[in-house]
């Protein structure tokens, strides 16, 4: 047995792509928050040991950056180790603030730099850890963040500040952790669906390859093996001619084990081969082509060797049919039939037309079990990429058979004949029309109606309700603050509605309008000199809403809303007698949050588009590999069957010696067995083979047909046993066994024409009955 090694494609899964994307997003977020924290770090550096403080800052923001750098080439173990070190470092640094630096910081700068990026290690853990571990660490990190803020707050009520800060951190971080975990689940589903699709495509391609390889070998068996055995068995052909055909057939069988040496063949060489083939089969036929020396437009070009083999085989079968049948019943009277082979070669393709002026026939009336036209001509060409064939004939008007290789179907109709192109147009599927809409990505189809999303929404409403209550300013119009809170809460609720497609424009307008109303109401409520720690809570709330809006695929709308929010903040600062930069400072601190969310979504969409291309290529490669493996396996199995049946007889025929009566009878038996293997594949098993051979030796004419296609009977053993039993009971006459299509209730029929005519039906379990 020859072992064939086929290279397996190196596929990149959706999970692997997403992991790399999330690592890069974590690195980008760490870089952004690291830059924003430089001012706080310089003001809060631990003076007893500035080097230790610098090392802590470098570890806090350098480890996630290193994670992103290593994501493209690092092993999963390395990436997990970096995340573990990052998570531990955050806990240790928070413990340092709680134990060694547990004193209030200066008023107005009492937010430690270490908790400005609490979400970075949490998201990093969520990239690799299980859902329960990710949420546990998120709660722990936010709890530590709240405790650190409590210990360092310069406010009069640090406990309430720490609680509010911890809850807000939990809310903000939970959004990004939830998005990360949702993306991981989506990637896992994509991987599962992709694998199922790839396997199904590979199975389909393997099935097609097996069938095409089987039909290719069947065509060779019909054209060469069966023809040689039939010539020898009938005894009408000189032994030297039979010997030549047998030797050529053995060479062709051996050549099937290896692909053609030449990938392409020049048309001029094809013409020479056609002339040689014509002289062997129909010496009186005329081969004509558009000779450029006579003013023709013959184009010298290359044709794939597989197409050349198919064309020569189809032309040979067409010539043999013409020699055998074109003269009709008047053949014995010496009726002369004129045959021509017209070769056409242009820049659009290559075509050969075999014509005769014989008796003709009706192509629609040819029985399906006749393989000469259906498989050896039309089927052979249809199995070749860009191959086409057409048979045109009618009683009394001769026959035209056109075979062609037409790689460019655009202009070939005028140059290579309408018969071929009309058939090719019917056979080849039209390319699919491009989709007018982009595939819905994870961001665009994000479902925020899950229990976890509703829990985060409830946390959003609760946290900002607490912040609003903490920062009530005596003497200010409380109604404005309540209106702002309700508008922002309703805007957040509007984001949570489930949608099957992109977020509707009407809902986008509603969300942005409510955010604008909430911002205007809060700016109208706040005094210019408010020193409350969370006085501008609405800016963070609106930014968080814009992050979720971006996560639903509306990045432009999110940044448009942020721009309007910044303009409102600057306008409020100017209107209240403050410098414009004061309003700008209020919103710029939230830019990192929105930028991190935007980078996450943009990278996710880009990765999804890249992944679709990679999956398409991987599917094609998997189909190609499956095709190669299946074709090789089917070819070897078919060759084993053909060699077992016919090679000993072909070797005997290769010697130019006269055959005995017993040898001629054996040739006919082998020829009939080969026909059974082609036409009645599902019945070419024991004990049917032995029963058929025994019946033929008794003089019974046996025809075995299989119309089941690729759907074999459910109980082949029971069917074979029943058919063999019936064959053993027929002593003379004729019997036709036909396996029915898969959609029939019964499995097979047996038509017996002996002393009495009868029709028998075989059921699904092998039972025999009469219709």
Automatic annotation (TrEMBL):
Taxonomic lineage of the native organism: Bacteria, Bacillati, Actinomycetota, Actinomycetes, Micrococcales
Taxonomic superkingdom: Bacteria
SUPFAM superfamilies: ATPase domain of HSP90 chaperone/DNA topoisomerase II/histidine kinase
Keyword Cell membrane among UniProt keywords: no
Ranges annotated as spanning the membrane: 21-45, 51-70, 82-99, 111-129, 134-154, 166-183, 452-472, 478-496, 508-528, 534-551, 558-575, 587-604
Protein name: Histidine kinase/HSP90-like ATPase domain-containing protein
Keywords assigned by UniProt, alphabetized: Membrane, Transmembrane, Transmembrane helix
InterPro entries per the UniProt record, alphabetical: HATPase_C_sf (IPR036890)
Keyword Membrane: yes
């Amino acid at each position: 047995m020859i072992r064939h090694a086929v290279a397996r494609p190196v596929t990149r899964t959706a999970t692997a792509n997403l992991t790399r994307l999330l690592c890069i997003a974590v690195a980008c977020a760490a870089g952004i928050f690291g830059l924003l924290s430089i001012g706080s770090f310089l003001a809060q550096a631990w003076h007893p040991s500035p080097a230790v403080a610098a090392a802590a800052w470098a570890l806090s923001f350098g480890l996630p950056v290193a994670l992103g750098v290593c994501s493209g080439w690092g092993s999963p173990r390395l990436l997990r180790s970096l995340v573990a070190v990052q998570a531990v470092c955050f806990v240790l640094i928070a413990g340092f603030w709680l134990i060694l630096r547990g004193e209030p910081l200066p008023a107005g700068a009492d937010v430690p730099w270490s908790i400005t990026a609490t979400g970075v290690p949490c998201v990093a853990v969520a990239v690799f850890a299980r859902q329960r571990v990710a949420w546990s660490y998120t709660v722990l990190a936010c709890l530590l963040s709240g405790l650190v803020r409590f210990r360092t707050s310069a406010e009069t009520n640090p406990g309430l500040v720490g609680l509010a800060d911890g809850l807000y951190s939990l809310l903000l971080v939970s959004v990004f952790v939830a998005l990360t975990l949702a993306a991981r689940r989506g990637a896992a589903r994509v991987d599962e669906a992709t694998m199922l699709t790839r396997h199904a495509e590979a199975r389909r391609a393997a099935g097609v390859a097996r069938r095409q390889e089987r039909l290719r070998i069947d065509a060779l068996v019909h054209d060469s093996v069966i023809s040689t055995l039939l010539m020898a068995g009938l005894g009408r052909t000189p032994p030297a001619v039979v010997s030549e055909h047998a030797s050529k057939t053995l060479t062709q069988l051996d050549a099937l084990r290896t692909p053609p040496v030449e990938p392409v063949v020049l048309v001029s060489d094809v013409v020479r081969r056609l002339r040689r083939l014509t002289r062997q089969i129909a010496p009186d036929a005329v081969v004509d082509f558009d000779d450029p020396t006579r003013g023709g437009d013959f184009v010298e070009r290359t044709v794939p060797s597989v197409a050349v083999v198919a064309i020569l085989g189809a032309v040979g079968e067409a010539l043999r049919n013409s020699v055998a049948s074109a003269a009709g019943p008047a053949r014995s009277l010496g009726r002369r039939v004129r045959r021509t082979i017209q070769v056409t070669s242009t820049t659009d393709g290559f075509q050969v037309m075999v014509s005769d002026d014989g008796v003709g026939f009706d192509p629609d009336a040819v029985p399906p079990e006749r393989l000469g036209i259906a498989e050896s001509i039309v089927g052979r060409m249809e199995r070749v990429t860009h191959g086409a064939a057409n048979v045109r004939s009618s009683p009394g008007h001769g026959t035209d058979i056109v075979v062609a290789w037409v790689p460019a179907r655009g202009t070939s109709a005028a140059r290579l004949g309408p018969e071929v192109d009309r058939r090719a147009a019917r056979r080849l599927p039209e390319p699919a029309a491009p989709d007018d809409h982009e595939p819905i990505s994870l961001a665009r189809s994000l479902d925020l109606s899950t229990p976890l999303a509703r829990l985060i929404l409830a946390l959003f409403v609760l946290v900002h309700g607490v912040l609003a209550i903490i920062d009530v300013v005596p003497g200010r119009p409380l109604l404005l603050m309540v209106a702002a809170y309700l508008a922002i809460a309703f805007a957040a609720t509007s984001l949570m509605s489930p949608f099957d497609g992109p977020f509707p424009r009407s809902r986008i307008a509603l969300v942005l309008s409510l955010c604008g109303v909430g911002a205007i109401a809060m700016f109208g409520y706040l005094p210019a000199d408010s020193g409350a720690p969370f006085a501008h809570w609405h800016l963070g709330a609106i930014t968080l809403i814009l992050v979720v809006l971006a996560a639903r695929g509306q990045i432009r709308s999110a940044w448009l809303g942020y721009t309007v929010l910044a303009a409102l903040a600057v306008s409020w600062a100017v209107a209240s007698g403050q410098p414009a930069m004061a309003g700008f400072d209020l919103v710029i601190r939230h830019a990192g949050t929105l930028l991190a969310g935007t980078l996450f979504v943009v990278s996710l969409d880009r990765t999804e588009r890249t992944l679709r291309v990679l999956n398409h290529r991987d599917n094609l490669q998997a189909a190609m590999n499956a095709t190669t493996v299946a074709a090789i396996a089917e070819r070897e199995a078919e060759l084993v069957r053909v060699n077992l049946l016919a090679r000993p007889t072909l070797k005997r025929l290769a010697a130019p010696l006269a055959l005995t009566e017993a040898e001629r009878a054996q040739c006919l038996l082998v020829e009939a067995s080969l026909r059974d293997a082609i036409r009645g594949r599902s019945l070419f098993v024991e004990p049917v083979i032995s029963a058929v051979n025994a019946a033929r030796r008794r003089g019974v004419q046996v025809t075995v047909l299989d119309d089941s296609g690729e759907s074999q009977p459910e109980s082949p053993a029971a069917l074979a046993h029943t058919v063999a039993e019936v064959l053993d009971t027929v002593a003379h006459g004729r019997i036709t066994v036909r396996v029915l299509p898969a959609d029939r209730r019964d499995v097979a029929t047996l038509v017996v024409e002996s002393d009495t005519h009868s029709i028998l039906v075989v059921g699904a379990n092998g039972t025999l009955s009469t219709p």
